[in-house]
């Protein structure tokens, strides 16, 4: 008997909406590559697709959704689509305008989950109130945040009416956000992992390599199974059909408690990207990133 795919497993968010536990991320992928990856993922059983305006590929994601649905005979309601408010669009009115443009890019009538991409100083409270408006109007099924530390998440909870359903964070064996996870458990907010594999730094850890050998799995599958057992929603990014399929094949083994603890012991609180890297938080640093949307050579083709 074949093990049930983890792609069929869902968690219930704090507003009662259910969300797949494993999905496809799309950061740093062109519209063409994303179109192909999303379509392939849907055909392989993925139902959670994650994008953002900042990625510059919402149009490609929309095309991939259409192609995937056409190939499988599924309906829009069978998918769970997440996108995010671009940093440069934050604020109440500007967020509402930006959401209308996002729907046009995705060619959807609603999104399942809309997130604040980063907590832009002085703007994220007003941005959240715009998300609350979209939620009340039924244009989004759930609203959440991304990259909110304990201080900013607490401030948001104190000043607004709707509790986020999700906080999407950089999370991998080298950055496990222990204190933040405790706050989120207390407030009923689900952790979702971006950069779950942590690149080579996590995949090449001797512990991960040894467990891959022990369980006859890839290092990526070991990390994704660990996430699954830690009850974390995970969105590994890939544009390769074989890798996308491989990432989902983690339902036929279980890490022992000892092995889970060994991965937990790898935590170094090591983030790859954080507030000081952005001009909205660190305006005097000439190296700090300004707000920008990724540009791809195929953008015009997908926006026709």
Report on the architecture of this protein.
Belongs to the aldo/keto reductase family. Keywords: NADP, Oxidoreductase. It holds the Pfam family Aldo_ket_red. This is Aldo-keto reductase. The chain is of the alpha/beta class and 304 residues long. The chain has a domain of 198 residues: NADP-dependent oxidoreductase domain (TIM Barrel). Helix content is 40%, strand content 13%. The strands form two sheets. A seven-stranded parallel β-sheet has the order 3-4-5-6-7-8-9. A two-stranded antiparallel ribbon has the order 1-2. Helix 4 links the parallel strand 5 and strand 6. The longest helix is centred in the N-terminal third of the chain and has 15 residues. It is globular. The chain starts with 9 loop residues before the first strand and ends with a helix. The model has no long low-confidence stretch (mean pLDDT 96).
CATH topology of the domain at 7-197 and 231-237: TIM Barrel
Note the run of SSEs as H and E. EEHEHEHEHEHEHEHHHEHHH
Low-pLDDT runs: none
Oligomer: single chain
- Average pLDDT, rounded to a whole number, is 96
As laid out across the biggest beta sheet, the strand order is 3-4-5-6-7-8-9
Instruction: State the secondary-structure class.
Output: alpha/beta
Which CATH top level class of the domain at 7-197 and 231-237 fits? Answer: Alpha Beta
Cα radius of gyration in angstroms: 19 Å
The CATH architecture of the domain at 7-197 and 231-237 is Alpha-Beta Barrel
Helix content: 40-55%
Full CATH superfamily name of the domain at 7-197 and 231-237: NADP-dependent oxidoreductase domain
**Count of separate DSSP helical elements:** 12
How many strands appear in the DSSP assignment? 9
Sketch the major β-sheet. Answer: 7 strands, parallel
- Strand content is 5-15%
Amino- and carboxy-terminal Cα gap: 47 Å
Shape: globular
């Amino acid at each position: 008997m074949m093990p049930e795919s983890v792609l069929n497993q869902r968690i219930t968010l704090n507003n009662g909406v259910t969300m797949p536990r494993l999905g496809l991320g799309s950061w740093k992928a062109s519209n063409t590559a994303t179109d192909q990856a999303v379509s392939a993922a849907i055909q392989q059983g993925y139902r959670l697709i994650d994008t953002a305006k900042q990625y510059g590929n919402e149009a490609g994601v929309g095309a991939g959704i259409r192609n995937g649905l056409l190939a499988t005979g599924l309906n829009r309601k069978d998918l769970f689509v997440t996108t995010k408010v671009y940093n440069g669009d934050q604020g109440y009115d500007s967020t509402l305008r930006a959401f209308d443009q996002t729907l046009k890019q995705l060619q959807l009538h609603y999104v399942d989950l809309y997130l604040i991409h980063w907590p832009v100083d002085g703007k994220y409270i007003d941005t959240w109130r715009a998300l609350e408006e979209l939620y009340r109007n039924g244009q989004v099924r759930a609203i959440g945040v991304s990259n909110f530390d304990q201080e900013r998440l607490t401030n948001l909870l104190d000043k607004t009416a709707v509790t986020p359903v999700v906080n999407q964070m950089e999370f991998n064996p080298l950055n496990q956000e222990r204190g933040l996870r405790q706050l989120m458990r207390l407030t009923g907010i689900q952790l979702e992992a971006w950069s779950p594999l942590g690149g080579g730094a996590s995949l090449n850890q001797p512990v991960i390599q040894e467990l891959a050998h022990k369980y006859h799995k890839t290092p990526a599958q070991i990390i994704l199974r660990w996430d699954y057992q830690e009850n974390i929603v995970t969105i590994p990014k890939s544009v390769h059909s074989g890798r996308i399929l491989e990432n989902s094949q983690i339902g036929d083994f279980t890490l022992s408690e000892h092995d889970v603890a060994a991965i937990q012991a790898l935590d170094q609180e090591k983030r790859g990207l954080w507030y000081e890297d952005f001009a909205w938080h660190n305006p005097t640093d000439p190296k700090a990133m300004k707000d920008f949307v990724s540009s791809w050579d195929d953008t015009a083709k997908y926006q026709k």
